[in-house]
Amino acid sequence: MDWLIILGLTAIAVVIIVIAVRKNDANMDKLVSEGRAAKRERTFWMQQTMFSTDTSSVDKIYSAIDKTTLHEVAISHYLEAGNCVLFTNKVAGGSFAATLKVDRQNGGKQQYTYQIDQYQGTGGYMKPKCLRAANILLTAIEKAFLQLDKDTSVSRRTVAFQTK
């Protein structure tokens, strides 16, 4: 008899998880169709994104980023010392901090690096709300670069995170 109760509770938990995943996927599909986010692998936030562009000032890039979109997903942003933009997002159960930095000049092109530096999640993964916000942030940054220089090139590499 006890096994029936356990089986019933397990079935209810599975149904709740499936509904939550489908709702999250539907929200993401809506953001993608609106152009506010991009279809990405679930581990995109573990990648460092490098931009190579003719845009020579992080101030110009910071000005071109859609701040309204960032505000809608609770992302704070700060221009620091003219060579770095700091981004933070804190929601119930999770958070992340990211930077967009002037990296170096390479063959007449300015190099910028974006990455998530810290995150709070569960089991080595970012919470869905933070993941959605991180996607929206990266999309806004990509759009800013392309708005200023349509020939901006983008490359990515995986970043190793250390957990406590």
Structure description:
The protein is an alpha+beta fold. The chain folds into two domains: 1-34; 40-158, Kinase associated domain 1, KA1 (TATA-Binding Protein, 2-Layer Sandwich). 41% of the residues lie in helices and 34% in strands. It has four helices and seven strands, in the order αβααβββββαβ. The protein has helices spanning 2-34, 58-64, 67-72, 128-148; strands at 47-53, 75-80, 84-91, 94-106, 109-122, 125-126, 153-158. Strands 1, 2, 3, 4, 5, 6 and 7 form a seven-stranded antiparallel beta sheet that branches. A hairpin with a 2-residue loop joins β5 and β6 (125-126). α2 packs across α4. The radius of gyration is 19 Å and the shape is elongated. The mean pLDDT is 84.
Mean of pLDDT: 84
The helix tally amounts to 4
CATH superfamily membership of the largest domain, which one? Kinase associated domain 1, KA1
CA-based gyration radius: 19 Å
CATH topology of the largest domain: TATA-Binding Protein
Shape: elongated
Number of domains: 2
Structural class: alpha+beta
In what range is the share of β-strand residues? 25-35%
